[in-house]
Specification:
single chain; mainly alpha
């Protein structure tokens, strides 16, 4: 099991570390149990015993080094994912702002639209913004009218479609027909 760079995969390295740690622990516990119970009637040679202890200790040190390497890799991967998420959030925010500008929404309508996209009901939006539910409903209707969208689901779907379309266009050739092509085919 190797990754793209020819290095052993994280899973393989973890399994290797676990095997080394298990073998070392078995050695130390085995000798402890044999000394405690007196199962070892003839003492093993001191040199052999020392060599096995040195090998087990080296194995434990090696597993610590591998654990540090794996931990650093996980931290780097986590940081990269966090940066990617921040970029995605920024790109989504830019997409929202561009559409809101294109639709010529007022600041109050933008606020209501953002809460609607997040899935809040009119009552919840009213509670969060300190407006009456009637005002929120009126501003929601203005958002739907200006955007040409039929309601909350259409509003959320619009932005989801935009995100998925952008992602699929940048990652792979577009093999799916556009909405216009699909509509004309049916």
């Amino acid at each position: 099991m190797t990754n793209r760079g020819g290095m052993p995969s994280s899973t393989a390295m973890i399994l290797l570390v676990m095997a080394v740690q298990f073998a070392c622990a078995a050695f130390f516990i085995g000798f402890f149990v044999m000394d405690l119970t007196g199962l070892r009637s003839t003492p093993s040679s001191y040199t052999l015993f020392e060599l096995v202890q040195i090998a087990a200790g080296a194995g434990l040190v090696l597993s610590i080094v591998i654990n540090v390497f794996l931990l650093r890799r996980v931290v780097r991967r986590s940081q990269a994912m966090e940066q990617g998420l921040m970029l995605a959030r920024g790109a989504f925010h830019e997409l929202l702002e561009a559409e809101f500008r294109r639709w010529d929404l007022t600041p109050a309508e933008r606020e209501v639209a953002l809460f609607a996209i997040k899935g809040y009901s009119n009552g919840e939006i009213a509670g969060l913004t300190g407006k009456s539910e009637g005002t929120v409903k009126s501003q929601s209707n203005a958002v739907f009218r200006k955007s040409g969208l039929g309601g909350r689901v259409a509003l959320m779907s619009h932005f989801l479609d935009e995100m998925v379309s952008d992602a699929s266009l940048s990652n792979a050739p577009d093999e799916t027909p556009s909405r216009t092509e699909a509509a004309s085919a049916s």
